[in-house]
Amino acid sequence: MIVIVIVYLMTINGLGVIVNAQIEVLKHKILTTGKINDSLKDKNGNKIWLLSGHWKSNLFNNTKFNDTNPGKFSAVIDMVMANGSTPHKHKISHFTLTNMSTQKNSTVYEGTLSLSMNLGPVFAIPVTIRNFQNETISISLEPLEGITSDQMNVVNHFDNKPISGTFTK
What we know:
Blueprint: H1 2-29, E1 32-41, E2 47-57, E3 73-81, E4 88-103, E5 106-117, E6 120-132, E7 136-141, H2 149-157, E8 163-167
Antiparallel strand pairs: 1-2, 1-8, 2-3, 3-4, 4-5, 5-6, 6-7, 7-8
């Protein structure tokens, strides 16, 4: 009888270890979500373009990234001129994390991403994503030296300004 109880307890303990390991794995796969609500302004501060949409990522709840658990970031951005004309949509995908650091009150994620444009996607656009205390983010498409003209066109399309977003609460 004692042997049966010991085997039973070992089985329960083993299952607990497995369940805890699975919970750890799921924590790294959970995506944080948020909204994009921003505008691009002219030199006088007048809104020219309105940006809205949503984003999702595993960057902000995980610090252990590798080949089997890569950093992920994607978004859909709707753009429309302030007068309601020229509505269109951009999709951000294929994010690749290359560096992560902490600066003042933010965590900084550097990498590349793809962004859909009218003539098709543009790949390997340098990006810096900043997380400000899990309240707001900024997505900066970087005009780094050596980028292609297609990549620079994407950066210029967003007026070389960061795109702001908030976390879903």
